[in-house]
């Protein structure tokens, strides 16, 4: 689980395109930028990160009480270059969309 995209916004006239990823807590800003540029070829301009502590929970049973904690995680807000306008959410694939739908009778 190196990166999971949680949300993204396309570029507007004033704002560049952005995406929010959930990454491993040990990943640095430089590693995130390098990962996206070398593997996916994305033009990353800036990376901001936020660390989150996992939520602590208590489960009370009839005989004992259990304590557990969710994993810690880090969010990375990636700002793309001005040349990158469409993040690609909701895109259509021409090969699939152009084919006529077959009827099941």
Task: Characterise this structure.
By secondary structure, this protein is mostly beta strands. 14% of the residues lie in helices and 38% in strands. The protein is elongated, with a radius of gyration of 20 Å. The protein starts with a strand and ends in an 8-residue tail after the last helix. The model has no long low-confidence stretch (mean pLDDT 83).
Q: Strand count, sense and closure of the main sheet?
A: 4 strands, antiparallel
Return residue spans where pLDDT drops below 50 for at least 5 consecutive residues. none
Oligomer kind = single chain
Gap from first CA to last CA: 43 Å
The share of residues in helices is 10-25%
* Series of secondary-structure elements, N-terminal to C-terminal: EEHEEEEH
Overall pLDDT: 83
Secondary structure class reads: mainly beta
C-alpha Rg (nearest Å): 20 Å
Strand percentage lies at 35-45%
Major sheet: order of its strands? 1-2-6-3
How many strand units? 6
Shape call: elongated
Number of helices: 2
